[in-house]
Amino acid sequence: MQGMVPLSFVRVLADYLQAKGVAPHELIPRRYSVDAAQLAGRMPAEAYCQLLIKAAERLHDPLLGLHLGQFMKPSQLGALGYVLLACENLGAALMRIQRYHRLVHDINPIEHELRDGQLILRWGVAHGKPGALFDEVGITGIVQFGRDLCGQSLALHAVDFVNPPPPDIRPYAAYFGCPVRFAQPVTRLVIPLEALAAPLRQPDPTLLKLMEAQVDAAMAELPQAGDLAETTRRVVAHLAPQGLPELEQVAHELRLSPRVFYRRLAEQGLNFRELREAALQQVAELHLRDPRLTLAEVSALLGYAEQSAFSRAFKRWTGTAPLQWRQQHAPA
């Protein structure tokens, strides 16, 4: 597993150990002991996961993920935490958690989807599985942030984890207040849309603007995550249901100006239109393999307002009409 997490996570773990009567230095190596001036630093995610395992063993607490997640506060995330505190409502805070996710960790990105009156936040496993403790701390932390920011219970429809089920899932159901499943393809947090309008306790537009400038600067200092071509294709696939993505929209999702994004593509000999079409072809073929979807629905999922436009594009990509391709690739 590759990726980094902020050293502020170690400070939270140290404070939790201290609260439980365990001296942090017994578990946390000196090189990860930080003062306030170092909290913006980062450490390997693998090393942090090992610290969580050691802490769970030392505390004899298999539910450390649930307990440490509830212990976390937005203010412990530095400037990003103050961005969350200053937002107008829960939806705005959650969208900023997604936007600035790489400041929290850069293992598997958050993807979001609006469907059937629900906001679905999900994390895949393409870049590895950090483990049960890491995932449980993260999901519980987000839910706890929501409850603390709003000053009320956060209603959930479902929570899924990719990791194997624990011996007893009742503590998870009790905390989240909804069905909790394990051994799922992706980690998911499903929130009813009406909950997103919940006002936060201390909205502050002036503070929000100031803190976002700091967070944007911190994001700009992070190394580029992975391959630009693959990142571009993933963003295109993510944006496609909202309409055919243009370079400016993809640049915005990557937190780059269109000019900088275009220059970086050119420096690597990449063409945005070619990357977009490769991504759309991949998504189209995936959807065409699903017999439940009509061709009109597939075209809409790729951002085409007219099925005929999608059919022409698909034939240009593959040399075959969508219906013919579907028939050729139907299960025997």
In words, what does this structure look like?
The protein is built from 16 helices and seven strands. The chain folds into two domains: 194 residues, H-NOX domain; 103 residues, Arc Repressor Mutant, subunit A. Helix 8 links the parallel strand 5 and strand 6. The strands form two sheets. A five-stranded mixed sheet has the order 3-4-7-5-6. A two-stranded antiparallel sheet has the order 1-2. The mean pLDDT is 88. It is of the alpha+beta class. Helix content is 52%, strand content 9%. Helix 4 runs antiparallel to helix 5, helix 10 packs across helix 13 and helix 11 crosses helix 12.
List the helices and strands and how they pair.
Blueprint: E1 4-6, H1 8-19, E2 42-44, H2 45-59, H3 64-71, H4 79-86, H5 90-99, H6 101-104, E3 110-115, E4 118-123, H7 132-150, E5 158-160, H8 170-176, E6 180-181, E7 187-192, H9 205-221, H10 228-239, H11 247-253, H12 258-267, H13 272-288, H14 295-301, H15 307-318, H16 322-328
Parallel strand pairs: 5-6
Antiparallel strand pairs: 1-2, 3-4, 4-7, 5-7
Helix pairs in contact: 1-2, 3-7, 4-5, 4-9, 10-13, 11-12, 14-15
Q: What is the average of the pLDDT values? A: 88
The percent range for strand residues is: 5-15%
Q: List SSEs in N-to-C order.
A: EHEHHHHHEEHEHEEHHHHHHHH
Kindly report the oligomeric state of this protein: single chain
Strand order of the largest sheet: 3-4-7-5-6
Number of strands: 7
Largest sheet: 5 strands, mixed
CATH architecture verdict of the largest domain: Alpha-Beta Complex
What fold name stands as the CATH topology of the largest domain? H-NOX domain
Helix content: 40-55%
Number of helices: 16
The radius of gyration is 22 Å
What ranges have pLDDT less than 50 throughout 5 or more consecutive residues? Answer: none
Give the distance, in angstroms, between the N- and C-terminal Cα atoms: 37 Å
Query: Could you say which overall geometry the principal axes of the C-alpha atoms support?
Result: globular
Structural class: alpha+beta
